[in-house]
C-alpha cells in the first residue's frame, strides 16, 4: 500500500469534456466533480479541455469533433435530461445515447457517457451529488480507466470505413 500523503504520479493523458448547459444547476455539479475526480487521479487542469453546448442533443457532434482532432485520450460527455410532460425526453435520450456510442465506435477514442436521464430534478441532483451517486466523479474514473485500456493496444488497424474520421488513424507511419 502507498503511504498516505504521497502525491499520485502525474497522468500523461489528455481529456476532452463536453458538458450541456440545459439543467445547468445539475450539469455544473457534474462538471465540478468530474474535474475534481480527474485532478485526484493526477490529471493536470491544462490537460483538460471543456466545451459547453446548449443541450444534451448537441453533445454527440461536439464529442465527435473533439475525438477527431486526435488530441484526446478520452472524451467525457456530461448532461442532464429530465423527464417533462412531453415525449421530448424520450427522443433526446435516445438520440444522445445513440450518438455518443457512435462517436466511440467511429473514432476509436473512448467516449464516456455521463449524461443523467431521470424522472425528476431531485433524482438528477442526487446523482450529481459527490456525497451520494457522484456520477461526475464516476465519469472521470471511467475515462482514466478507458484511456489506460486503449493504450494497451496502441495504434490498432482501423477498419476500412469509420475511423477515417480520426486524425489519430490518419497520421503517416513513422519514417514516411
Ligand atoms: N436538453 C437537455 O440537456 N436536457 C433536457 O432535459 C432537455 N429537455 O427536457 O428538453 C433538453 N432539451 C434541449 C435539447 O437537448 C436541445 O438542446 C434542443 O432541442 C436544441 O437542439
Offer a concise description of the structure.
The protein has helices at residues 24-40, 59-68, 88-107, 121-128, 135-153, 167-170; strands spanning 15-20, 48-53, 74-82, 111-118. By secondary structure, it is of the alpha/beta class.
Secondary structure topology:
Blueprint: E1 15-20, H1 24-40, E2 48-53, H2 59-68, E3 74-82, H3 88-107, E4 111-118, H4 121-128, H5 135-153, H6 167-170
Parallel strand pairs: 1-2, 1-3, 3-4
This protein binds 5-nitro-6-ribityl-amino-2,4(1H,3H)-pyrimidinedione (INI).
5-nitro-6-ribityl-amino-2,4(1H,3H)-pyrimidinedione binds at residues 20, 22-23, 54-58, 79-82, 84, 88-89, 92.
What do you see in this structure?
The chain is globular. The chain has a domain at 49-75 and 88-156: Lumazine/riboflavin synthase (Rossmann fold, 3-Layer(aba) Sandwich). The mean pLDDT is 88. The chain has a 4-stranded parallel sheet with strand order 2-1-3-4, with helices on both faces. By secondary structure, it is of the alpha/beta class. The chain has 6 helices and 4 strands; from the N terminus they run βαβαβαβααα. Helix 1 (24-40) packs parallel to helix 4 and helix 1 (24-40) crosses helix 5.
Cα-based radius of gyration, to the nearest Å: 17 Å
Lateral arrangement of strands in the main beta sheet = 2-1-3-4
Shape: globular
The CATH homologous superfamily of the domain at 49-75 and 88-156 is called Lumazine/riboflavin synthase
How do the SSEs run, as a string of H and E?
EHEHEHEHHH
Named at the architecture level, the CATH assignment of the domain at 49-75 and 88-156 is 3-Layer(aba) Sandwich
Helix content: 40-55%
Question: Alpha-carbon distance between the termini?
Answer: 45 Å
Main sheet makeup = 4 strands, parallel
Return the structural class: alpha/beta
Question: How many strand segments?
Answer: 4
Strand content: 15-25%
Oligomer: single chain
Q: For this structure, what is the CATH class of the domain at 49-75 and 88-156? A: Alpha Beta
Low-confidence stretches: none
Number of helices: 6
Give me the CATH fold name of the domain at 49-75 and 88-156. Answer: Rossmann fold
- Which hetero compounds are present in the coordinates? 5-nitro-6-ribityl-amino-2,4(1H,3H)-pyrimidinedione
Give average pLDDT, whole number: 88
Amino acid at each position: 500500500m502507498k503511504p498516505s500523503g504521497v502525491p499520485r504520479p502525474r497522468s500523461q493523458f489528455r481529456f476532452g469534456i463536453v458538458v450541456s448547459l440545459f439543467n445547468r444547476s445539475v450539469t455544473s455539479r457534474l462538471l465540478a466533480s468530474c474535474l475534481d475526480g480527474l485532478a485526484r487521479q493526477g490529471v493536470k487542469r491544462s490537460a483538460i479541455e471543456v466545451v459547453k453546448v446548449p443541450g444534451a442533443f448537441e453533445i454527440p457532434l461536439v464529442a465527435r469533433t473533439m475525438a477527431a482532432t486526435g488530441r484526446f485520450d478520452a472524451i467525457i460527455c456530461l448532461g442532464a435530461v429530465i423527464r417533462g410532460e412531453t415525449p421530448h425526453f424520450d427522443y433526446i435520450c435516445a438520440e444522445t445515447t445513440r450518438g455518443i456510442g457512435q462517436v466511440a465506435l467511429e473514432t476509436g477514442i473512448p467516449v464516456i457517457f455521463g449524461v443523467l436521464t431521470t424522472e425528476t430534478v431531485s433524482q438528477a441532483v442526487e446523482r450529481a451529488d459527490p456525497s451520494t451517486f457522484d456520477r461526475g466523479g464516476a465519469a472521470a474514473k471511467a475515462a482514466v480507466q478507458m484511456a489506460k485500456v486503449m493504450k494497451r493496444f496502441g495504434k490498432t488497424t482501423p477498419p476500412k470505413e469509420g475511423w477515417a474520421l480520426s486524425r489519430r488513424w490518419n497520421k503517416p507511419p513513422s519514417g514516411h
